[in-house]
TrEMBL record:
Record domain 6-phosphogluconate dehydrogenase NADP-binding: where: 9-169, 327-486
Residues covered by the 3-hydroxyisobutyrate dehydrogenase-like NAD-binding domain: 173-288, 492-612
Protein name: Ketose-bisphosphate aldolase class-II family protein
Organism: Brassica napus
Highest taxon of source: Eukaryota
Stored CDD domains: TBP_aldolase_IIB (cd00947)
PROSITE patterns (UniProt xref): 3_HYDROXYISOBUT_DH
Stretches assigned to the Four-carbon acid sugar kinase nucleotide binding domain: 926-1092
């Protein structure tokens, strides 16, 4: 939207400012129409090409934006809502710009009235003012505020109207609030300036001298520099006080209403009222200087009219006639003093120094100085003695205290007092030195400039004293200073100038604190507020220097708060002695005292803001707040009600362009499936893709690791775009849109900063706009009101405050995307020129509104996209496709969510090993971790914690592979390869990672070089591993890219889907080293701390040990599972190997008899074997006949237990079973129980035939109410061998029991499966048996192998028995129908 299309902008009211605004719009190509009652102004306007309107209503007709001047709330009704008011003519979707300084509350009420009464009117408050800084002197500035969508709509007009635009997103009224903060500062600065000039004049310093020195020093402000000359020339009258007082009254009232303390403002206003009271009635013609003379009792004008001189010229005189100095004594080697003394050494003086802090003396000696033991020791044989101590007490002590300097000081010595002390102290000291009778001379020479300038000899020095004294010290003063002023008036005059400077500096720091805290209380963005005020009349040297400390919450003491406790104490004491009332200075002094009393005396003097923060409950720190995610998402408008995915599919089937995603690393595929990836970009490969006519394909550029420097990135993009053009022509002019997929946490090159845009445009031609969209739901990245957030649990953290922003190579500060663009482009793309699509527009306007907005963008502009849901992204994508079909072309810099939305991806289930058949592989998985972000480190720690038994870790030393010799590097790589091959062959999940201590270089390029060496070391390790892994997981963008392309030699891959939200799985191409092996690309910045462990768990060969799950799967699949009794390691291995070979689930079963012999070690072996098996397997405790043994079993890690109360009465059995079931449920352990009783013998337990009982169906119904999961039935089956006549199973009873159990969700179990014929087994399965207990036949196979006598060696015997048992188990597995069901 802009002048290109000749949009119409209307004005209601034309004053000097708005006339300039209208003129700017006309020059920019807009059509401008206006209503104004002043004939003269209308004539000027029409001469420029503007159109005159007859009423405010006419102004709105056909206008895309209307600017309304409001100087008073009373105008609102007539101008806006009257019979011919603006609202009568304004069109739907127009922008209403309120150019006003009326209070924010009125503006907010007005906005509510307008938006409630008229749909889709975008209201923006626009405060217009002229810049005061050197950069913007006299240029128009606009402070605009409003909702994000309103600001976005108004942006083209605002930008065209002014030279500097500041936008505050949120409530309207920010302009009025900024105005109040600025007026607060101007009022305080004016009163402080008058106090300063009055005190200096009373101290005998010429006002114009004060003005000239301080306007170039730390005490300067815009008010001081621009108003003091008018004051001294009597060119400003009392009317100024009246206007300023009224404005400050509004500010003070606002502060009271909040409530918020503004003591400096309050006392400044009282001074203004006192000044007004000195005027005669309504006569405001009296000069301001005369008024202040009456108020303060100082003859300012008389002092200003005295003879002038140039302090710089006097300084030149004394330095050119300076006496030679050989030896200098220096007392006070603090931060400033040490730098001064060290610089004198560099200037070839001999310097002997003293300080009470002994380590400083050692340091002084190390730079060539001579250390003294006392002030007296310093003073021997010196020509000049420099004193640079903290205060008057210390100065007195070093001169006249114990071992003081005066006692031994040589006659004729010149003492230079460089400390900030009161003029009265200096005058008194001069008299005392004269009375010593040693011809001692004193130079009053306070310094200013800070530690750095002290060390460089670039201080500002204000010297005073006798001519002889000044000439004696001239060489020293000259060596230490960049600016040397000699002040007439004798000793004390120099300190008088310094005192006045400190008065202003102290007040300006305190007023800056009051202003920024007040702004924070008003709800303003403090960093933006600082930027605005720095260009306004409220600025000062101290404001611009100290407020950044407040914004950064950095109170490193460059100048301690206690220094101003001392310096303003000097000011107030001197004012009192000279009878000059210093109201503003006294209040500022009290604020510093309050800070010191609170314990902040030793922090930076900007820390005085903490007084306001504590009292007002605010934070000036200019950081965006961390928000509650749920609250923010709830506050947004409802999503667009229609899912545009079908429309996207329809559009993609038509004329939609193929989306070509140039991805700097493989992690960008994290939201798509069934999309191909190329890792090289030959014309042939791209042509092949175009011929397939896909909706999308990726080209992996690997620019994260390879294109370290901007020019390299540019060359790579140029190469790819050239090949894309050639391939497009070769494939019949295939049309496409390019997306540069970037990091969702804003790391990496911004295209326009990295020359990538120029590279793409040089090949593809100029684009209509850059689209910047880092939203990525799966990674918790949201863009709201132009601010990009990273979700951390239930919080939204501004991206600039996260660990990602501190990246050694690609770090940044800004969370606001507009400001981020400006930061990344080093100001080439100003924040206020960046367009924005708001969530409001997406959710209320839908795809059509997006299309309209995109089509209206100025060619070549940058546009950010706000989004907080996948629906938002889909709406944008649909609108963008519409715009493309209208001929628009875009280059996109986006995160992964945009890609899936743009091609209409419909989510599918997570990818698991069964989708690849990789669960049949016997080797371990390979996990490669190179990412250094804290999130990855936490994820690795959690992985190691959760997978202790199966995971093996190999840590590669970053120091050895990146910083040591090639031999050390090669040895470290070989070590890792050898261990990895061994672990993988043993079936262990193998983690290869770089050491977690982050090693960075001195520069970002050095850090990237270290990263590159580490990445290449990981590549070499993976390249040299010979074992084929079950799957490969690479963690981190650079790591996953290099592993795929360099280590695995993949040239293409297919994205199958996701292993976890945001974690893509690739199927590597046939040309790769491991074709068909699943390749999991795990981004460094995705997922919770447990995410990596979760993926490894879900991709383990067995996804858990649950007997209940095994049996439920069997019930659903119509097969049964074998539960095989085991007694030793050979038996356990026989079950595991048979089950793995048959790809069948199985149950390892421990009988009480076996447990009695094998104990805990046997159970532990079973559990370990089940956990490491490549098929689902659980461990079951069989026939628990006593409560004691079952309670023990529940604590040993069994997955299920059998409660055998068959020897009890039915009632006792029910009670017994119910008790154990309740205990087992609390531990998530499955329970099997028996009803009826089997005859036969098992592990020494015999039940005679007469004791056997069949299961009673009626009792079974009640028995199942105990909560059991499985019922062991007695239908004629026996433990051990069946009689020669064969088994006689009651299948009709089994059928009845199955009908009952299936209703209750209970599975049936049959003990005594040994010896049952195949036909009977199958009939049992058909009638609901899902678990068969097998013991006798397996035991017999073991005993037969043991007693055959064919094997004599123990190892051979173990092998033979295992083989024999395995054969029986495999037969049973096939018989039960579970083979292939794992």
């Amino acid at each position: 939207m802009g002048g290109d299309g000749g949009a119409v902008v209307g004005f209601v009211g034309l004053d000097l400012f708005s006339f300039e605004l209208a003129s700017s719009l006309l020059r920019s190509g807009f059509k401008v129409q206006a209503f104004e009652i002043s004939t003269e102004m209308v004539e000027k306007f029409t001469e420029l090409g503007g159109c005159k309107c007859d009423s405010p209503a006419d102004v709105g007709k056909g206008a895309a934006a209307v600017v309304v001047l409001l100087s008073h709330p009373d105008q609102i009704q007539d101008v806006i809502f009257g019979d011919e008011g603006v609202i009568k003519g304004i069109q739907k979707g127009a922008v209403l710009l309120l150019s006003s300084t009326i209070p924010p509350l009125h503006l907010q009420k007005l906005e509510k009235q307008i938006t409630e009464g008229k749909e889709q009117i975008f209201v923006v408050d626009a405060y217009v003012l002229k810049g005061m800084s050197e950069l913007l002197d006299g240029k128009l500035m606009i402070i605009a505020s409003g909702r994000s969508d309103s600001i976005t709509r108004a942006q083209p007009y605002l930008t065209a109207m002014c030279q500097k635009l500041y936008t505050f997103v949120g409530e309207i009224g920010a302009g009025s609030k900024v105005k109040m903060v600025n007026e607060l500062l101007e009022g305080i600065h004016l009163v402080a300036a008058v106090e300063a000039i009055s005190l200096g004049s009373q101290a005998g310093v010429h006002p114009w001298i004060l003005y000239d020195i301080i306007s170039n020093a730390a005490g300067n402000s815009w008010i001081y520099k621009n108003h003091i000359p008018l004051l001294l020339k009597s060119d400003i009258d009392g009317h100024f006080l009246d206007v300023l007082s009224q404005n400050l009254g509004i500010v003070e009232d606002k502060a009271k209403s909040l409530p918020f303390p503004v003591p400096l403002l309050a006392v400044a206003r009282q001074q203004l009222i006192l000044g007004i009271s000195q005027m005669h009635g309504d006569d405001t013609s009296i000069s301001l200087a005369k008024i202040w003379e009456k108020v303060l009792g100082v003859g300012i004008l008389e002092a200003a009219n005295k003879e002038l001189y140039k302090p710089e010229d006097l300084a030149k005189e004394i330095t050119t006639q300076a006496k030679h100095v050989k030896r200098i004594g220096f007392i006070g080697l603090g931060a400033m003093g040490f730098g001064m003394a060290a610089h004198l050494l560099k200037s070839n003086f001999s310097v002997r120094g003293y300080d009470v802090y002994k380590p400083t003396l050692v340091r002084f000696e190390s730079v060539g100085g001579l250390a003294a033991n006392s002030p007296a020791d310093v003073t021997k044989d010196v020509d000049v003695l420099v004193i640079m101590v903290t205060n008057e007490v210390q100065a007195e002590d070093v001169l006249y205290g114990h071992l003081g300097a005066v006692e031994v000081i040589p006659s004729g010595t010149t003492v230079v007092l460089a400390s900030t002390v009161s003029p009265a102290f200096v005058s008194q000291l001069e008299r005392r030195l004269e009375n010593e009778g040693k011809d001692l001379k004193l130079v009053d020479a306070p310094v200013s400039g800070g530690v750095k300038r002290a060390a460089m000899g670039e201080l500002t020095i204000m010297a005073s004293g006798t001519e002889d004294a000044l000439k004696s010290a001239g060489m020293v003063l000259s060596a230490l200073s960049e600016k040397l002023y000699v002040i007439r008036g004798g000793c004390g005059a120099g300190s008088g100038v310094k005192m006045v400077n400190q008065l202003l500096a102290g007040v300006h720091i305190a007023s800056a604190a009051e202003a920024m805290a007040f702004g924070a209380r008003l709800g303003l963005n403090t960093r933006k507020l600082f930027n605005v005020i720095s260009n306004c009349g409220g600025t000062s040297w101290m404001f611009e220097n100290r407020v950044p400390h407040m914004l950064d919450n950095d109170y490193t003491p460059y100048s301690a708060l206690d220094i101003f406790v001392k310096d303003l104490g000097i000011v107030t004491r001197d004012g009192s002695s000279r009878k000059v009332p210093l109201h503003i200075s006294t209040v500022a002094h009290q604020l510093f005292l309050a800070g010191s009393a609170a314990g902040w005396g030793r922090i930076d003097d900007a820390g005085v803001v903490k007084v306001y923060e504590t009292l007002g409950g605010v934070k000036v720190e200019g950081r965006l707040p961390v928000l509650k995610k749920q609250d923010v998402l709830k506050s947004l408008p409802s999503e667009w009600p229609f899912d545009p995915t079908e429309d996207i599919h329809r559009l993609n089937m038509g004329k939609s362009k193929t989306l070509v995603v140039l991805d700097d690393d493989p992690t960008g595929t994290q939201t798509v499936h069934d999309v191909e990836v190329l890792t090289e970009w030959s014309v042939e490969s791209i042509s092949e893709q175009f011929r397939k006519k896909p909706a999308c394909f990726f080209i992996l550029t690997n620019s994260s690791s390879n294109c370290i420097f901007l020019k390299q990135a540019s060359a790579l993009i140029k190469d790819i775009c050239t090949n894309l053009c050639a391939a497009s022509k070769e494939s019949g002019n295939a049309d496409y849109t390019i997306v540069l997929r970037g990091d969702s946490t804003l790391r990496g090159h911004f295209p326009q900063a990295s020359l990538e845009a120029d590279a793409a445009v040089s090949i593809l031609g100029e684009m209509d706009a850059w689209i910047i969209c880092p939203f990525f739901l799966q990674g918790g990245r949201y863009t709201i009101d132009d601010v990009h957030y990273v979700a951390d649990s239930d919080r939204l953290v501004p991206a600039g405050e996260t660990e990602f922003a501190k990246d050694a190579s690609f770090g940044y500060k800004s969370s606001n995307l507009r400001e981020w663009v400006e930061e990344k482009t080093a100001g080439a793309v100003p924040a206020n020129s960046v367009e924005s699509i708001s969530i409001q527009l997406l959710r209320t306007g839908g795809p059509d509104a997006v299309c309209e907005f995109l089509c209206s963008l100025k060619k070549g502009s940058a546009c950010i996209v706000n989004a907080a849901s996948d629906r938002d992204m889909a709406v944008f994508a649909a609108g963008m496709i519409q715009a493309e079909q209208k001929g628009k072309s875009f280059l996109c810099r986006t995160a992964a969510s945009f890609v899936s939305a743009r091609i209409g991806i419909i989510p599918k289930d997570l990818v698991l090993p069964k989708d690849f058949a990789s669960d049949k592989e016997s080797c371990g998985a390979l996990i490669v971790v190179g990412s250094y972000v804290p999130k990855t480190t936490k994820q690795v720690e959690e992985l190691q914690s959760q997978h202790k038994q199966k995971l093996r870790s190999i840590e590669i030393s970053v120091e050895k592979v990146a910083l040591k010799s090639s031999e050390v590097r090669a040895a470290e790589i070989s070590r890792a390869v050898e261990m990895a091959d061994a672990f993988l062959r043993a079936g262990r999940e193998t983690l290869i990672m770089s050491s977690r201590e982050l090693i960075t270089g001195k520069t970002s390029s050095e850090s990237l070089d270290i990263n590159s060496k580490v990445s290449s070391a990981l590549v070499e390790v993976v390249s040299q591993i010979t074992t084929r892994p079950r799957y490969i997981l690479a963690k981190g963008g650079i790591t996953s890219s290099d592993t795929a392309t360099k280590a695995l030699k993949a040239r293409r891959a297919l994205v199958i889907g996701q292993a976890l939200a945001g974690v893509p799985v690739w199927k590597l191409g046939p040309e790769s080293r491991h074709p068909g092996v699943p390749y999991i690309v795990f981004p460094g910045n995705v997922g919770s701390s447990t995410a990596l462990a979760e993926v490894v768990k879900s991709w383990s060969v067995v996804a858990g040990r649950s007997t209940k799950e095994l049996l439920l799967n069997a019930e659903n699949g119509g097969y049964a599972i074998g539960a095989f009794n085991v007694y030793n390691l050979e038996g356990i291995e026989a079950v595991v190997e048979a089950a793995e070979e048959e790809n069948s689930p199985a149950i390892l079963q421990v009988h009480p008899g076996a447990f009695k012999q094998g104990g805990n070690p046997l159970v532990s072996c079973c559990i370990s074997a089940a956990e490491q098996a490549r098929v689902p397997m659980s461990v079951h405790f069989d026939h628990g006949t006593t409560k004691h043994e079952l309670l023990e079993a529940l604590e040993l890690g069994f997955d299920s237990v059998m409660v055998d109360g068959s020897h009890l009465s039915f009632t006792e059995n029910v009670s017994y079973t119910k008790t154990i079931t309740e205990l087992a449920r609390s531990k998530n352990i499955m329970v099997e129980a028996e009803l009826g009783r089997l005859s036969g013998t098992e592990d020494g337990l015999t039940v005679e035939d007469y004791e056997a009982k069949l299961t009673n169906v009626h009792q079974a119904q009640e028995f199942m109410e105990t909560g059991i999961d499985a019922l062991a039935v007695c239908i004629g089956n026996v433990h051990g061998k069946y009689p020669e006549s064969g088994p006689n199973l009651k299948l009709d009873l089994l059928k009845e029991l199955h009908n009952l159990s299936s209703k209750k969700g209970v599975v049936l179990v049959l003990h005594g499966a040994s010896g049952l014929p195949e036909k009977l087994i199958k009939e049992c399965i058909e009638n609901g048996v899902r678990k068969f207990n097998v013991n006798t036949e397996v035991r017999k196979a073991y005993m037969d192998a043991l007693t055959s006598g064919k094997k004599t060696d123990l190892v051979d015997l173990m092998s033979a028995t295992k083989t024999a048992m395995k054969a029986v188990i495999a037969d049973k597995i096939r018989l039960f129908g579970s083979a292939g069901k794992a």
